[in-house]
Design a protein that fits this description.
This protein is of the alpha+beta class. It has helices at 19-36, 93-105, 119-123, and strands at 8-12, 54-60, 63-73, 76-84, 110-115, 127-129, 134-136, 139-146. A hairpin with a 2-residue loop joins strand 2 (54-60) and strand 3 (63-73).
Length: 151
């Protein structure tokens, strides 16, 4: 009997990403956000390379299974580009990544712009809707902020 394969958590700044990993991350983001969700927009937006940006992902055997980034965004930490590979969905990887991201962020204020149908998912991690729904790239989104003890 073989042990169950597991996903390894990785955290890196842009300068610590090797080119193979960076390519795999950008390909996953493009495959899901641009192709699967049919949104023509520039996914590499220049923010991946900022010194305060942290990249978090789960990989298995060199394959990126789930990913997100944390941006240092004018005094708050902005979680974004949350994505799970189609063949890795349903295993809780996005939730584990959010938990890991919040551990990295600690008590600092954090925000995200959630696809509207995922507002309840993010609410489980302490995020509340902070403004009206809006449409970005044809998909309804809501701004959300994590409520902490100190608010």
């Amino acid at each position: 009997m073989h042990p169950a394969p597991h996903d390894d958590l990785r955290v890196a700044s842009f300068r610590d990403l090797d080119t193979t990993t960076l390519y795999a991350i950008l390909r996953l983001r493009s495959d899901v956000f641009v192709v699967e969700q049919n949104c023509a927009y520039p996914d590499p937006d220049g923010r991946d390379t900022e010194p305060g940006t942290r990249h978090l992902w789960f990989e298995r055997d060199g394959e990126i299974r789930a990913y997100l980034r944390i941006l240092a965004d004018h005094g708050v930490e902005r979680i974004g580009r949350v994505v799970t590979a189609p063949d890795a969905r349903g295993h809780g990887l996005a939730g584990k990544l959010i938990t890991e991201a919040l551990a990295v962020i600690g008590n600092r204020p954090s925000v995200l712009d959630a696809q509207a149908h995922l507002r309840d998912f993010y609410a489980r991690f302490g995020f509340e809707v902070t403004g009206p729904e809006y449409v970005e790239d044809g998909i309804p989104h809501v701004p959300m902020k994590r409520v902490t003890a100190g608010r």
